[in-house]
Amino acid sequence: MAAVLREKQLLFIGFFISFITVVLSARHHHQQSKLYTPPTLKNLNDNFPRQTFDQGFSPYFGGSNLQLRDKGAFVDISLNNYTGAGFKSQNRYHYGFFSAAIKFPAGDYSAGVVLAFYLSNQDVYPRSHDEIDFEFLGHAKRKPWNLQTNVYGNGSVRYHGREEKIRLWFDPTKQFHTYTIIWNSNHIVFLVDNIPIREVTYSKTIAPAYPSKPMALYSTIWDGSDWATDGGKYKVDYKLSPFVASFGKLQVEGCISKNQTKSSPSPSPSPTLSPSQSPSPSAPLFSCTKSGGSRKMDSVEGEDVVRLSEEQRKAMEEIRKEYLTYSYCKDRNRFPVLPPECN
Known about the structure:
By secondary structure, the chain is of the alpha+beta class. Helices cover about 15% and strands about 30% of the residues. The chain has an eight-stranded antiparallel β-sheet with strand order 1-4-13-6-7-8-9-16. Strands 2, 3, 5, 10, 11, 12, 14 and 15 form an eight-stranded antiparallel β-sheet that branches.
């Protein structure tokens, strides 16, 4: 009798395991079938030339943790237990088109690592700086990298940033993907592989916090263990270092600042620059450079950069519906009274 009962129990366990396997397999198949297929949109990167490192950039910090490849067409920056690394544009820009193909550090664990591609002028305006950020936040336990975008204008004193987070629809460690910032008097657009993922439109409500002063472009990798992954729960594991990020297809086009034509390299080991005295607000700040004779090739006022097409807007809506995981405009705990542009 006991043997029969045990046999029935084993049959039930076997059936239960088979059932769970089928359910999990079906769920995996369903998830695979829902993988995002990007639409084919006009490639804005085709409008502008690429630059080698020496043509448009300078080391920022990190010494030998910054390495050039293929005559400066590619740049590797790495984080180890000694330092991170970074580079910056030689010029400061007032509006423009800024893009790079980036391959993230490989591995199943990159918690605490922050990879950033951003515009800033904090060294020139320490109390009222502007900033436009792509921040890529490392992961733990095989979870995906988080892509965070942020916008500061005039220090954003009241709201301290306007963050959004997007879950990427691909593995950014396997191959290069393109990340682009468009910034002009009409809007700021963040694009991934030519797909808009966020637009900040200029309006009277956001005007006090809209970036309005010349900025340099920075690319950095550094230790953000105190906040980057699950609020600082998971730290950088330097036994897995170095964490190496690769940059290529560098494109920087826009209005070059007249007062600060070249950005001087800084030895600071962090993306926060050392303060310096701000230039007079009444001084002429910039003069424009043109990318070509066609209006479509104008990096500041061209029709391809001042507004989104219907196809671009539709693609952005689809991405945000499926992959947006956080928006400051929906965070009532942080903002009991939402910033005015959220309304």
